[in-house]
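Human: I would love a firmer grasp of how sequence relates to backbone shape in proteins. Take your time, and here it is.
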Amino acid sequence: MSRAGALMAGLLSISAACEASHGIVRHAQLRELPDLACVRRVVAAMPSVTNVEESHSKRPSGASTGFVAEHHTYFFDVEDHRAQMTISVPSLGRVDYRQHMVRVNRRYPNEVLRAARQTMIAIERALESRCGVENLSEVVVERCLGFECPAPPDTR
């Protein structure tokens, strides 16, 4: 490799190591797959949500068990920024829930993240009350990337 090529490769590896994620991630494990029509209605009914799109896919799990993994993804906009919720069944007896709004190397305005977080929490509460998802707001784990998570809202 030429000296210029080696220098370029070094710079690329340094820049890749410096990538920073910015946003919010909320995830949990659910007891069972909720009614997906109800999930869509909940997301679409949020006052702060616009432009809801969904995608559903099934793929072999990769194991020789013959299990087919399901992925149900809902894309939506909050203040003109794209967020995503995925409910997946990656293996028999396991249901994963995840909402996120994350970028790499581009910061969201803090007010957008606050609005997205409030919307995500409202979706989770509505999934509990309208779709029968048990204890979601109690078991969800939140990670804020590149900004400080506000204190959890008082649910009493």
